[in-house]
Design brief:
alpha+beta, Mannose-Binding Protein A, Chain A, eight-stranded mixed beta sheet, two-stranded antiparallel ribbon, 2 helices, globular
Length: 154
């Protein structure tokens, strides 16, 4: 049996994540069956979506609180784009990959559509990993997500 290469990350909430190496493409990290790429620079939501699609991935969707915390820690506490939006129908937020996940982490009184806000970003660690609707032209970092990768350890 060969050991699996990994790095451990502990967030401010004392959650520990094991990040597996050598499973995803260079520059991507493995977590709970998926590969993730996190940008180092900000861009608007539409460009983030396009850049993820160029990598055969989606602007990140969030399936549970563990993944929500993991994604937001990748941005070192900064705000970051999620693939959730209500561009097709006001007030009906859907994931860009059309996933049927029903996990949300809205901040108090959100979403509120203040100033025609159609896109969603994660507020970051210091805001308890909650989400907010914002204008799609704002500039934030983003994470792309791809593949459901099954791993086995002999």
């Amino acid at each position: 049996m060969q050991p699996i290469n990994h790095e451990s990350i502990v967030d401010k909430g004392k959650n520990t994540f094991a990040i597996l190496a050598d499973i995803c493409d260079p520059g991507w990290s493995y977590f709970n069956g998926y590969c993730y790429f996190t940008s180092e620079t900000c861009t608007n939501w539409t460009t983030a979506l396009s850049k993820c699609r160029q990598e055969n991935s989606v602007l990140v969707n969030i399936n549970n609180n563990e993944e929500n915390v993991f994604i937001q820690n990748r941005h070192n506490g900064a705000k970051s784009w999620l693939g959730l939006n209500d561009l097709s129908e006001k007030g009906n937020f859907t994931w860009v990959d059309r996933g049927d996940g029903n996990f949300t982490a809205w901040a108090k009184n959100q979403p509120n559509n203040y100033r025609e806000e159609d896109c969603v970003h994660a507020l970051g660690v210091k805001y308890n990993y909650e989400w907010n609707d914002v204008q799609c032209g704002d500039c934030h970092q983003y994470t792309c997500k791809k593949g459901k990768i099954e791993t086995t350890v002999d």
